[in-house]
Amino acid sequence: MRGTVLHAPFDIRFEERPDPRIEQATDAVIRTVATCVCGSDLWNYRGINPVTEPRPIGHEYVGIVEEVGAEVASLRAGQFVVGGFAYSDNTCANCRYGVQSACMHGGFMGTCQAELIRIPLADGTLVALPEQPDAGLVPSLLTLSDVMGTGWYAAVAAEVRAGSTVAVVGDGAVGLCGVLAAKELGAERIIAMSRHDARQKLALDFGATDIVTERGDEGVARIKELTDGVGADSVLECVGTAESMTQARQSTRVGGTVGFVGVPHGIQIGGDELFRTHVGLRGGPAPVRRFLPDLIGRVLDGHIEPGKVFDLTLPLDRVAEGYAAMDERRAIKALLLP
Amino acid sequence: MRGTVLHAPFDIRFEERPDPRIEQATDAVIRTVATCVCGSDLWNYRGINPVTEPRPIGHEYVGIVEEVGAEVASLRAGQFVVGGFAYSDNTCANCRYGVQSACMHGGFMGTCQAELIRIPLADGTLVALPEQPDAGLVPSLLTLSDVMGTGWYAAVAAEVRAGSTVAVVGDGAVGLCGVLAAKELGAERIIAMSRHDARQKLALDFGATDIVTERGDEGVARIKELTDGVGADSVLECVGTAESMTQARQSTRVGGTVGFVGVPHGIQIGGDELFRTHVGLRGGPAPVRRFLPDLIGRVLDGHIEPGKVFDLTLPLDRVAEGYAAMDERRAIKALLLP
């Protein structure tokens, strides 16, 4: 089969690789129906996370089950499945507590921009659809694998509830899905921070009520201005830099909550500040598996269409163009079809 | 009247001071029935917070209303009142959000180890009892002014709920009240960290199910051992040092929550760590006013007796002995009676 391999910063190739096979009795192998490029892949692509040797890449996928290991009970060949970017047994103490992305026996996917994918702990990782979905739903189902699940977790971690005022820092695909999640969870006001025309439009389409184009201190001031000097009840941090995290905390009202899902790079938080502001913090790699059944339902019944974050569709063998377009911010998110 | 003044580190005096009087129409003046020494007073007493000039001290009190300003609507002379260590209008956006300790027009009490106390924003700060309480209830009512309200907030911020496994870092009066709060909130298992015999006994009396005497890494290891390697769902941090905060975070299960109420001294938290562990954090000066009606009810009906944290009772004019006893850890908490 063919799969994507990152050879060095900015050197990404689609090339022949060994077919994955069942290695453990709990594995499945799936044939990819769709995959995509994640904002977090860019940390590697850009060499910000060092690339020391060629490595396969990609962690978002939907597909058709090809084969299952002897111990896989809930899946069979031919089913359409969605799974998260983390694999999990869904039975350990962490999974039962709702943090499947920190499964005691799990790990992270990393070979998914490929024609075939081995899925460890398939019973605890994959959710099979009752039937084959319409092709038009595939992009939205694919977002549940990471980006929409992550936006959802940001909103849940930020304690968004009916009537909340929410601010979203980051207008990447995760931030945009965070807007959609906040809307679904009943937020009354959703302030999206973006200075990019197409992203603003999508944010408004997903339910944003206000757009703030300012950043840093000016962005914070603008959010305060929009909220009678109070700040937002819930802020979704969807970037991961020290600047964006500071902006998120400072945009939060006293006693409000920041949900952070941007992979942190160089973030230190002072205990004094948290104490003074009563701001609550929770974040991490989203436990997508926890949300899959609910979110699949919302996609299948047409209630949400997170697949709109894909503004570039490419055949999988042109994956390198997808990376380049996202790196240069010409695309929000690139959908790849084998 | 006479009141307590901190002149310099370890130099605390009870001396003649001007009678407080109504300064604003929203003020009340109360005659102190009981006051006490707080662990946080020791930061000043020990000179860790610099003492540059003589200043009155004390922020915990119950008393009888002497006089109210023209705009005070809910109180009248002769009523027995409990108030928090922060004063608040109880009507601003922060108060309505439940964070009365960050009232937009409020502040912190600081002259309460005295015979008379001026209470700003009396309507929003004080809660009057329906009738004079039995003398035996006065110590417990006094704890609601800070220490029990703070232990309660630690448990609420740590998201303690029915069935939770809770660990409490800090065996001072706040930590002990945290144990009691966790018990009241339905925790199934409460691990108190203490190596002090009298404090262990009180923790057990308040509902602790396990005592851990180890500290630091060993304390963390012991908590993991007691929880099948998982950690506690909720950890109450009731000290405020970098060491205790680290111990608290590391004792928390993946996806669990730390409620921190120890005033932070030199605490920095890495975003990476929070991301990796999914541990939620919330803390701050407790919004005691929010909890007063509920907690007063629990004391009046005999359901809780947080006044047991007082193991030393002194006449107010011997306040200096109370500081010395707490500084030397000979007393958990000193009750002062005018």
Automatic annotation (TrEMBL), chains A, B:
List, separated by semicolons, the cofactors it needs. Zn(2+)
Q: Which domain of life is it from?
A: Bacteria
Name the record gives this protein: Zinc-binding dehydrogenase
The UniProt entry, under SUPFAM superfamilies, shows: GroES-like, NAD(P)-binding Rossmann-fold domains
Which keywords label this protein?
A: Metal-binding, Oxidoreductase, Zinc
Family recorded in the similarity comment: Belongs to the zinc-containing alcohol dehydrogenase family.
| Any Pfam family hit | ADH_zinc_N
The record's section on InterPro entries has: ADH-like_C, ADH-like_N, ADH_Zn_CS, ER, GroES-like_sf, NAD(P)-bd_dom_sf
Which ranges of the sequence are coiled-coil? none
| Membrane-spanning intervals of the chain | none
> What GO molecular functions are on record for this protein?
oxidoreductase activity; zinc ion binding
**Natural source organism:** Nocardia terrae
Q: Which positions fall inside the Enoyl reductase (ER) domain?
A: 7-336
